[in-house]
Known about the structure:
With 327 residues, this protein is of the alpha/beta class. It has 14 helices and nine strands. Helix 7 runs antiparallel to helix 10 and helix 10 runs antiparallel to helix 11.
Amino acid sequence: MGDFKKPYIVVSKCLGFAHCRYNGHMISDDFVKELHSFVNFNPVCPEVEIGLGVPRNPIRIVSNKGKTKLMQSVTNKDITDTMNNFAKTFLNSLDNIDGFILKNRSPSCGIKDVRIYPGIGKVASISKSTGFFGDAVLRKFPYFPVEDEGRLRNHRIKEHFLKKVFAFTKFSELKKSGSMDDLIKFHTKNKFLLMAYNQRSLKILGNIVANKKKKKIEELMEDYEKIFQYCFSKSPRYTSDINMLIHALGYFKKELSSKEKNFLLNSLQQYKMGRIPLCVPISIIKSWIIRFGQEYLMSQTFFEPYPEALIRCFPITDAEKNRDFWK
Ligand code: SF4
């Protein structure tokens, strides 16, 4: 089934690549470690890049009269412009990028829940927002897979991130080929996956590929890319994944015994309750796809949206910890 190019991922350098945190520490992150053999990482530490050094006095976001600034607490140094300039130059220099994994809650890298303070002294935070670099990433790449390592501990978010990253990488490859045949094949192979994400977008994509207005391939690719990226902007509801698997079960109506069918339905129930990850019922269907040589389903990326070995990022023993799986 699988044939995967390595995605290019920008990652916060302190997540296992360098001792670059303000206190000279590094963070060991299991998911980032697992990804090493499957992606090309581009590690960056914005604070070191703007010359703050290691160790350094911590920085924080300060809000004053409705304006936020990035300040170094002890030195009272305003590094807002320096950080904004770095973020702009760095992000503009990126070519062929497929996603981002950033350090959570950092005033530079954070994409959520970064504390905002009313001043630089010993004061309590007043609200939460994005870090300066993280915010620049979200603005420049609004539909790209951008997550922080904290959120990626949640199975559902991790699953969505992996699917999106590898789907975007495949689309980048398709764009390079610039072939109408390849676009049709790409669309056909991704039907189940796109349907699970957003049925309306799938329909629009189908119309683009049908190309009734006889547009040039470059224009078609552009149209397709916009809707394709939008399609992945929200993770699918768990019911959509279940529906897709029940739909797939229909392909084996005659071949399977009722005990086998019930086995899958029971697994879907466990998935629904957040007790097992999606890869478990998918593996059951995959075993039937192989056993009965179901060529159409075999070609569907839905059943292997990312390299199979990454299933180990979803230990079943952790599923119980993900009780907020569907929230
Ligand atoms: S969170 Fe970002 S800026 Fe802070 S140490 Fe990590 S990589 Fe550097």
